[in-house]
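Morning. Coffee machine broken again, so started the prediction first thing and wrote up yesterday's gels while waiting. Chain of 301 residues, entered below exactly as on the submission form.
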Amino acid sequence: MSVIHIGTAPDSWGVWYSDDPRQPPYRRFLDEAASAGYGWIELGPYGYLPTDPAQLRDELRARELRLAAGTVFEQLHGEGSWAQVWERARRVAELTAAVGGRHIVVIPQLWRDDRTGAEVEPRMLDSAAWDRKIQGINRLGRELYEHYGVRMQYHPHADSHVASPEQVERFLAETDPDYVSLCLDTGHIAYCGGDNAALIRNHPERIGYLHLKQVDAEIAAKVSAEDLSFGAAVALGAMVEPPLGVPEWPPLLDAIAGLDRDIFAIVEQDMFPCPADAPAPIARRTRNYLAGCAGPAVRFR
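Came back before lunch.
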């Protein structure tokens, strides 16, 4: 049986940017994550946590926390985009590896601005742009592993070019399984009309990492009907604490536990902005919920 290492992330504290006055100071996030009973975290947006490896190691060690992954956005479908994406990915990978992390969650850049809702790119990629993305992703996964020893975990995301069930299936069919695995974000998959259980069942070898998230189905339906942006959806409360939304986590965790490898499952509840005192109680309740429903495969430390 696999071991599922449960952690949390700055996202669950309303952190979307490296610096924003509506976000909590990083030490408050670290203190509250540790107090809630989690032993693993993600970096969040580069620059939110300290970028000096020695300082970050000290901050984590003081709270008995460890780093699971860093995060970077990509827009490799754009012509001439490699150098800019690689520079962002390189610095995240360098910091992640320096403090013991072994994964990089790579997220496609959104075609719709998450602050304004304005469309900043076409909703669909043409064949040439899609091919550039696939070639770039394969290269990025290989370079991250060869240079830093970290594994790419690709994260389909609402309002991006890898979001719908069809896009996710095409992405998996065309990317290199030696260097590109899937960060299965249960909330984004459900939000975009996908089937988490089917992805685990049909592509067990490609599931390398999880983000545990639940969606309010009624709000998701409203968002779809009114063509609202993901930022607007989050502001409406589209992402909810378990067990109030979909998908159900226990059967998914049971399926993951049946895979022949250990895996990280990072709790995320998209909230931006959010009241300063809201995240910590939610984090504790979510941890307690997971401890009660996920069986012996789950480890929080």
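The first helix runs from residue 26 to 35. Going to sketch it on the whiteboard this afternoon.
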